[in-house]
Amino acid sequence: MTAKLLLILRFYRSAMLLFCGAASLALAWVAKVHGTPIVPALLLGKALIYPLFLYVWIIPRYSDEFYYYRNLGIRRRTLLGVSCAVDFGLCCLLLNYSAALLHTAR
Q: pLDDT digit of tens for each residue in the chain (106 aa)?
């Protein structure tokens, strides 16, 4: 189980980290500028961006890598689902951190 998780995180780092990290930082900046009431809307926006990002960018570009991971015992659905869950969790932590900084600054 740990080996599969490390493989999924390797895929996340190679395929999704740059775009998702940039989007998360942009959302944290918007939360800092506009305040904490906008955080749920930002999380919803991030959740709505995922299908577009997956079907327009990730699946066509990394389709050959999916066969590699399938041969290692990881399905495409699992690979993408866990990668998105990890990124969504990191985004939630980042938004909570920026909201906490905003509250301590006031």
A: 788 989 988 998 888 888 888 888 888 888 888 877 888 888 888 888 888 888 898 989 988 889 999 999 999 999 989 988 988 888 888 888 887 887 776 6
In whole angstroms, give the CA distance from residue 86 to residue 80: 10
CB of 12 within 8 A of CB of 86? Answer: yes
Q: Which residue has 């909570």 as its token pair?
A: 96
Give first-to-last CA distance, the chain, whole Å: 44
Structure tokens at 56: 């327009």
Contacts of 56 (CB under 8 A, 6+ apart): none
Name the strand (E) or helix (H) holding 67: helix 63-71
What is the dihedral angle through the alpha carbons of 10, 14, 19, 25, rounded to the nearest 10 degrees?
50
pTM exceeds cut of 0.90: no
